[in-house]
Amino acid sequence: MTKKRSTPARKPRTDALRNRERILEVAKGAFTRQGANASLDEIAKQAGVGAGTLYRHFPTRDALIEGVYRNEVEKLATAAARFAETMSPIEALRTWMLLLVDYIAAKHIIAPALNSVVGGPSRLYEGSRGLIQGAIDELVKRAKKSGDVRRDLDAFDLLRAVIGVFHVGSGPECQQSARRVVDILIAGSRPLR
Questions:
Q1: Between 31 and which of 46, 72, 113, 179 could a Cys-Cys bridge form, CB atoms 3.0 to 4.6 Å apart?
Q2: Whose CA is closest to 49, among 60, 57, 61?
Q3: CA 184 to CA 140: how far, in whole Å?
Q4: Structure confidence at residue 123 (pLDDT)
Q5: How far apart are CA 55 and CA 61, in angstroms?
Q6: Which of 32, 168, 25, 165 is nearest to 98 (CA)?
Q7: Cβ(67)–Cβ(58) under 8 Å?
Q8: Which one-letter DSSP state was computed for residue 147?
Q9: What span, in angstroms and rounded, lies between the C-alpha atoms of 126 and 132?
Q10: pLDDT tens-digit map of 153-164
Q11: Whose CA is closest to 76, among 99, 98, 92, 94?
């Protein structure tokens, strides 16, 4: 009996990655405007790809909805590292928290589509929680080390405060309120002098 050699997984082509990103961006907008029943054919058309390309990347509607959500979480998580490389610790934390506000607002808009996913959104949220918590933990740890924030600051408290704003209301005014809360939290996180 001859053993079959397993070939290493090929890295996706650049154009395939570009197509995937375009599909995800267009789908995010479509699900935000039209909900979970947005036309997949129309999403493919607006993304400038054929239906076959869309289905090759996302074989089902649920896979596309999950892909949109996971893509947003990954962007949020990788932004923390990018901000840490290019900004002061306190500014990186503030900028990331403002991005978190935008992410939560988008998540609330796309929530009806997420609710349609088999198994419900809680399965998706579980995986994202660790990425988001890890990102803010690192930013807070860096800000503590630099002396920009109080030593007793708990990163989870910051998350709770920002997320809590969205439990009180929704809409553009809620997003603006959450942005103000970020500035209040940053000011209140400064060490006592």
A1: 113
A2: 57
A3: 16
A4: 64
A5: 9
A6: 165
A7: yes
A8: T
A9: 10
A10: 999 999 999 988
A11: 99
What local confidence, expressed as pLDDT, does residue 13 receive?
76
Q: In whole angstroms, give the CA distance from residue 132 to residue 58.
A: 24
Tokens standing for 62?
């649920």
Residue type, position 113, single letter: A
Q: Pull the structure tokens for residue 121.
A: 């959104």
Q: What is the pLDDT of residue 10?
A: 59
Give the span between the Cα atoms of 109 and 112, in whole angstroms: 7
Q: Where are the alpha helices (DSSP H) in the chain?
A: 14-34, 40-47, 51-57, 61-86, 89-115, 121-146, 155-168, 172-189
Q: What is the CB neighbour count within 10 angstroms for residue 27?
A: 26
Mean pLDDT split into 10-residue runs, the chain, 193 residues: 56 82 92 84 96 94 88 91 96 96 77 67 72 94 97 94 81 82 94 81
DSSP code of 32? H
Q: What is the pLDDT of residue 7?
A: 57
